[in-house]
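Re-running the complex after MR caught last week's input typo. The corrected sequence lines follow. Everything else is unchanged.
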Amino acid sequence: MTAPHVSTSSTPTPPSTAEKAVRPDKPRRYGPMGLALTAAAAGLWAAWTSGIDPAAILRGPEQLVRILGLMLLPPDLGTVPDALAGMIESLQIAWVGTIIGAVISLPLGLLAAKNVGGRFSTTMARQVLNLLRSLPELVLAILFVSMIGLGPLAGALAIGLGSIGTLGKLTAEVVEGIDRGPIEAAEAVGGERFQVLRWGVLPQALPEIMAFWLYRFEINVRASAILGLVGAGGIGGMLSNFLSYRRYAAAGTAILIVIATTIAIDMVSSRIRRRIIAGPRGPKPTADPIPSADAL
Amino acid sequence: MTAAPTQPASARPPKPPISWKVPAGIAAFLLVTWWAGSGRFGVGLSIPELFAGLERGQRIMEDLFDPRWQAWRGLIGPFIETLRIAILAALLGCAAAFGMAVLTSRISAPGLRSFLAGKAVLNVVRSIPDLLYAMVFVAVFSIGPLAGIVALILFNIGVVGKLTSETIDGIDTGPLEAAQAAGARHSQAVRTSVVPSVLPNFVAYSLYAFELNLRASLVVGFVGAGGIGQVLFVALNGFRYDVVSLIVICIFIVVFLVESVSIALRRRLV
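Corrected-run output:
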């Protein structure tokens, strides 16, 4: 946009040819326009055919305020010990689940990385990870509950299996991004396959991979707080009981405990993640690193 | 290492000393893991139990690997409802998320007070799991897709709001300064410099949120918030694992299709 402002709308004289040539054509961007139109059309269709009663939407805020009032004014302090015990069980589920996920996803992720695994193993490992990623934890939890019975173990296994997919994919991405030098060096001094992995690959990739484990732990804390809905232990079962028996004050207290715990865990975990990535004297980043979108 | 070292040992750099924090951290990690995994205090992780469970699960497995294909007709309606829920939640939620993101980035926030308030709201919104929203909104709106839509809107505000605000934090501030130097008000500066530079990322996050909503509609349906999840819940409660298997396969296909389109679009955008 460096064209000199010779002509303005007030001057009646047509712009000179020279000026016209300097200005680039305004780009026509059909792509974004098409995307916006598609989104708008889809939205209109969905709203039109949804059969949602507008009156229900209008009643919503009032109802929400009423229920929030029942939940929080006053909170039911009598449920605090039970709710805390449930939350601790949820944290245990998330912890054990994350460890299961990390332990299994590390070898799978290494196999799925193009610069470590062979062509066949890469394809196979990727397919396994894709399949695991498509199964929601809640479905896994139901399957495990029907296999090994009600209780937190089913939840931990569901969380673990559910974490393998994303963790493995992220591990593979990190490993594919490492510097080739140390691998070549380890090969040049006669390192065997495992030794190359141990000395050439892992030291470079492990900090970032561990940061992803912690990040996944944060996600798993949220997930484990609801798995109790299907009988897989933790605070979720209590919550859904409170809500279905309309014990809103007790439910509100339990929800507050979930919120406080997740925020506390997020804060501690994001500090540890920064420390792992940046080192003790490293620069303090202003924002969290944005993980590849699939991590969420 | 078979060759003798050619350099005197003193030329080697000294090994950095290990801080006491490392063994202490490892010990704490092992302790917490033992506590969380033990049968007495924690989840009771045991390998024999696991294998016993797998044996008991044989019938379930057999059913899972033998999907009831002829049930597909009954799934079309719920799937369309799921699609509707995901579309509306993604559009409305991401639009609201953009506003929250502008409020909660240091670069674009209009003032300290709205910045702090926005951050606090976003943190609370993000800390609540989607299913919990669904439970609460089923209580508010009663059973039906509306509860699912509102639950997922809040979920999207949390995810897309955080990602977009972090993207705004990382933009080049040159255009913003240029706009301010040219005398733009804060809103004008944000409109002409911040919005164009994060729009591609924001659209990419929104597409991603749409994918997440398709997956999430599976679980919010469990508590009565409409869509395919409700059908899945009924099938699971009735121990119809052959129908469950078909539903999971269909979800896999739908998510895969949407994901491929969305990944292709996202790659072009960013």
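None of the earlier attempt is carried over here. Chain B is about 75% helix and 0% strand. Chain B has one domain: 64-269.
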